Amino acid sequence: MSDSAHEPAHAAISDFLSEERRFPPPEGFAEGAVVSDRSLYERAEADPEGFWAEQAGSLEWFQKWHTVLEWELPNARWFVGGTLNVSVNCLDRHVAAGLGERVAYYFEGEPGDTRTISYAELLADVERFANVLKGLGVRRGDRVAIYMPMIPELPVAMLACTRIGAAHSVVFGGFSPDALRDRINDAAAKVLITADGGWRRGAVVALKENADAAVAGAPSIEHVVVARRTGDADGPTPMTEGRDEWWDDLMAGADPSCEPEQMEAEDLLYLLYTSGTTAKPKGIMHSTGGYLTQVAFTHRAVFDVHPESDVYWCAADIGWVTGHSYIVYGPLANGTSSVLYEGTPDFPDKDRWWDIIERYRVSILYCAPTAIRTFMKWGAEYPDGHDLSSLRVLGSVGEPINPEAWTWYWQTIGGGKCPVVDTWWQTETGAIMIAPLPAVTTCKPGSATFALPGISAELVDDAGEVVERGGGYLTLTRPWPAMLRGLYQDPERYRETYWSRFEGRYFAGDGAKLDEEGYLWLLGRVDDVMNVSGHRISTTEVESSLVDHPSVAEAAVVGAKDETTGQAIIAFVTLRGGQEHTSERGEDLRRHVAKLIGPIARPKTVIFTDELPKTRSGKIMRRLLKDVAEGRDLGDTTTLADPLVVEEIRRLSSQQPTEE
């Protein structure tokens, strides 16, 4: 990372961001519960190790740990001496407690097919597939690559790996063959689990074809297991004799019982690769006992989960850390019933999400702010006509949520009664680190509020001095159970990337602001800053000011090279339903930004588009927008939910006059 990326995050924040818009706790919560939960913060601060030991006690251990934490910066070991098995904690113990008939997943396929899978059924599938893996030569300590659509076989494969002590590496099903190959090779994976294809907006994604191309350059792969999903919808599936096997055929001949491995708390649970500053992706390592402890606690506490009555839906993709933690391991460890959805929010129509909530009586919805802003643009009354009364907690994940979207979410989807838990965390942290707790934390729209019990977060300035109010770098000052245990086969890169910038502090590149009451406002990555005539301006701040305008549903801002100012601010804007794309509207938006932030932040160009380029999990791909703005080749767009969107934006950009 360049030195400029370490300059202080832009400290100024628009007036609307600090406006105190507060909402009371939802109905039905006793005041005593609030006091009790507040004491949790106090206990955690007084004795962090004791607090995490208490949370670990909610899991089932074969052998209890003798030491809660061993810490020698940057290496942590949690619950040393303890042994457990993740699949036992997610499945066996619930079945043994008489909850085998409880629904684990309501699966909703994009074409409309559905499955209801109980905990007993999920356990049976996991045991059989664990034996399939053992029959293919997978042993404790091996790595298994998984490249699948959002179907039930995906969590089955993950849990089967945990049962026999193999580490899994899930690769998002939208990644290219090259990206898959690189991840397989770095992990030296022995087996690849994939599917014949997956559905995306009515079209077949050729997963097996991509897998074949990747495996051609991955000599460690000995076997490829293929689940049936799309059949012959896109032609016959190529199968290589002696290497490729159908999932169903292997399951039919597998032994139904598989004894779980007793894993050390610090044994590797999974690898999850994330982008780095170099071409080589970073292999994030997560351990067994600490990770499961924290994702189970945060899922239970942040969403106020009642497993006996709640239906929970995290609308992410399992290919990302959100899916690992809050579709698979957290909910299953807590015995929760979840929705597992294959499709996108607007296919085959705009009512799909709300129909799912209505049919399954979803009570907790956790999704990306970009999805929320997509819904906003469809009209103020949307989703009128659907019964969403089952919802009682709403959550947002993936990027800072602007106050306008927060308020719309709370009012329109939650009916003004559901608390909104805005969460901050990363692939590297493994679990939610900063978020409000329902009925405990008084919320401000757009703020992630406070660090959770057991977490110590501080802002520092460029010199590493603590910032009490205003903007700075977001750092963590002590270890936490779900933290990454390093980068696979690259310990020096781990230290350099996360622990070298500020002595004794974890820092991964996020900027934040503390307001006068100590509330945290996430500003995005400090390298997501534009330099306009020597002034460093946060992209998040400009985007928030645009979305503050009543005509705007969604906005993305990038800095494009400019001969005069160094960088010029280019805004890509999606308007709400019924609003017109006019030059007058563009000028109005430019004035609005200048009023809220200052003339230096006025966008040079406003480009109106009906859609923004997003990944399947709902994140805006600003890198592509920057490439469009600067006229560069777009490179790999395989992670996009709809690649055609970028071409349309490119066309609009070429026709758009620059505002002067």
What's the shape? globular
* Lateral arrangement of strands in the main beta sheet: 5-4-17-16-18-19-20
Number of strands: 30
Give the biggest sheet: 7 strands, mixed
As a percent range, the share of helical residues equals 25-40%
| Unreliable residue runs | 1-36
CATH architecture of the domain at 531-655: 2-Layer Sandwich
Radius of gyration: 24 Å
Category from helices, strands and their pairing: alpha/beta
β-strand amount: 15-25%
Task: Using the coordinates shown, work out and report the CATH topology of the domain at 531-655.
Answer: GMP Synthetase, Chain A, domain 3
CATH superfamily of the domain at 531-655: ANL, C-terminal domain
Q: Report the end-to-end length measured between terminal Cα atoms.
A: 34 Å
Name a few traits of the molecule.
single chain; seven-stranded mixed β-sheet; 19 helices; 30 strands; disordered N terminus
